[in-house]
Design brief:
The structure is a homodimer. By secondary structure, chain A is an alpha/beta fold. Chain A has one domain: putative 2-phosphosulfolactate phosphatase (Alpha-Beta Complex). Helix content of chain A is about 40%, strand content about 20%. Chain A has eleven helices and eleven strands. In chain A, the strands form three sheets. Chain A has a five-stranded parallel β-sheet with strand order 7-2-8-1-9, with helices on both faces. Chain A has a four-stranded mixed β-sheet with strand order 3-6-4-5, sandwiched between helices. A two-stranded antiparallel sheet of chain A has the order 10-11. In chain A, helix 10 crosses helix 11. The N and C termini of chain A lie far apart (about 35 Å). The C terminus of chain A is likely disordered. The interface between A and B is medium-sized, with 29 and 28 residues.
Chain lengths: ~260, ~260
């Protein structure tokens, strides 16, 4: 198995990079954490949309009674949308059985870019080990951990989450059979540096500071949790994201702190 | 001063990113280390060319008697070129007074992309502190440390060199006046992790392994040196790269180990 980490979607040069790979899209603060929370709370599926207009159009096409519009611009809920990008909003009472159409500043674009891959999963600290075990069990030969970053820049929290997935992948694989890139080495080292206080690392990150200022400190507390019980592995199934690996839904959503 | 690190040229989104910034292009193995060595050995200037054909055309335009063609593809000297991309080839006997037309796999492209910046410097471990002091003395408000990476991926050695420049920048600035991005934070942590044995870090890097297999282990020894005496700060002056900060030329080239 060859494991690579790219720190921003712009580093994916061509579809060729993707078609050979299992890609894990990571947007720890907050899109992939929100997708995990939504699916754990019983949402039927999540559809990523690049723009606000596209999200609204998808919702109308599928039927507004079965869809909820979610997402953010500048960290804040989009005007007219049902939900923002806080995992804690995605409770069973609100999302159970619904299709979530989600558009966010960074994560949605990364997800849509990665959809060309042989397999596209959603990763975060919340489900790091579950993602790693899924990849290991699938016998994947090439893994790309694709960080969404922020506005084209590296983000600390995505790099740490990439390292968390990698640490578990190395733990469950025969180390002789694994080769890692320089990017993967950096992510792994970073995770090991921060693993004893992931909350502090997220609070120190650029986007963590912005979210705290906007009043979303509770989202950092939630998203900094490593390996919540029964964490799902969300994956693209056709055009939407569904739970790849089953786990109980509902109760765990109450773990939101 | 705001300091950002981008780990690959593809992460530079637009000219706007550059026009406000002092950009330091880093290709530790080996283009910017070679440029430093060439200028220390008394080369008149270095001209970066994107392709082999462009390099040959520039050499013909300027006059083949005053130019030397240098560079690599796949790590090896290009057929018909005078010089490869090993700093040790660029001795005073060979390059003094000459214009070097250089085309390499990653560094040349990064240099040409960064040429739009307010100021474009060449950095490596060899001149990390000299670059930092030059930036601090110039009162630059925005600094972008732009890693060339390798084939669109992160490279360990460039990330470490970015951290080395950053460590010195933070040492000579009033820390209250400096803000660093998540990418810069990662580079700084990485440098502090590796600074006690930079040779080992370069040998462990993906490109370091390739160069060692190709017989260029001595280049790693040279390029792993932090802050060689009288290291120049190469900078774009018009279309070519010249020494920005004077230092003795000639003798120091003998430091090649």
């Amino acid at each position: 198995m060859f494991i690579n980490v790219k720190f921003a979607p712009s580093m994916v040069g061509s579809d060729h990079d993707l078609k050979q790979s299992s890609v894990v899209v990571i947007d720890t603060l907050r899109a992939t954490s929100t997708i995990i929370a939504a699916l754990m709370a019983g949402a039927r599926e999540v559809i990523a949309a690049a723009t606000i207009e596209e999200a609204v159009a998808i919702s109308h096409r599928l039927g507004t009674e079965r869809t909820l519009l979610g997402g953010e611009r500048g960290g804040l809920r989009i005007k007219g949308f049902h939900l923002g990008n806080s995992p804690g909003e995605y409770t069973p009472e609100v999302v159970h059985g619904k299709t979530i159409v989600l558009t966010t500043s960074n994560g949605s674009g990364a997800l849509l870019k990665a959809r060309q891959a042989a397999q596209t999963l959603c990763g975060a600290l919340l489900n790091a080990s579950a993602v790693a075990r899924h990849l290991a069990a699938g016998g994947t030969r090439e893994v790309l951990l694709l960080c969404s970053g922020s506005g084209g820049n590296v983000s600390l929290e995505d790099s740490i989450a990439a390292g968390a997935i990698l640490a578990e992948l190395l733990a469950v694989q025969d180390s002789e059979s694994v080769t890692i890139s320089d990017g993967a080495r950096i992510a792994l080292w970073l995770f090991n540096e921060c693993r004893n206080d992931l909350h502090a690392a997220l609070r120190a990150s650029e986007h963590g500071k912005v979210l705290t200022e906007l009043g979303f400190a509770h989202d950092l507390d939630y998203c900094a949790q490593l390996d919540i019980p029964n964490a799902p592995v969300p994956a693209f199934a056709g055009s939407s994201i569904k739970v790849q690996q089953s786990g109980p839904t509902g109760p765990t959503a109450a773990r939101f702190v």
